[in-house]
């Protein structure tokens, strides 16, 4: 799968430091959503949680995620690898009661 999305990843910025490894960052983002854990609980081997969170937001704004989804979907459709079965995940990540907007005091 990485071979399909690697060419779609944004290049390093012209100025400033090079970005952290895209593959490790995608693994960090996937881990966060797979476990429904807070960003701060990201394992050290997946890098900084700040890096992963910033990259997630940046790629959402600049359209990187849409490009990746469209390319992977087109490749799977061309290979006749899509059954078009809809699946709904019933996993719920609940906020703590104090974070639910209850009245204070």
Automatic annotation (TrEMBL):
PANTHER family recorded: BLL5188 PROTEIN, TIS1421-TRANSPOSASE PROTEIN A
Domain Insertion element IS402-like: residue ranges: 2-69
Domain of life where this protein originates: Bacteria
Protein name: Insertion element IS402-like domain-containing protein
């Amino acid at each position: 799968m990485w071979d399909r999305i690697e060419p779609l990843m944004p290049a390093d910025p012209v100025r400033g430091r090079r970005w952290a490894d895209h593959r490790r960052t995608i693994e960090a983002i996937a881990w966060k959503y797979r476990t429904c854990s807070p960003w701060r609980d990201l394992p050290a081997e997946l890098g900084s949680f700040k890096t992963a969170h910033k990259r997630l937001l940046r790629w959402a704004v600049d359209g990187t995620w849409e490009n990746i989804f469209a390319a992977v979907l087109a490749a799977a459709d061309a290979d006749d690898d899509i059954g078009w079965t809809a699946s709904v995940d019933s996993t719920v990540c609940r906020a703590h009661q104090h974070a639910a907007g209850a009245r204070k005091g």
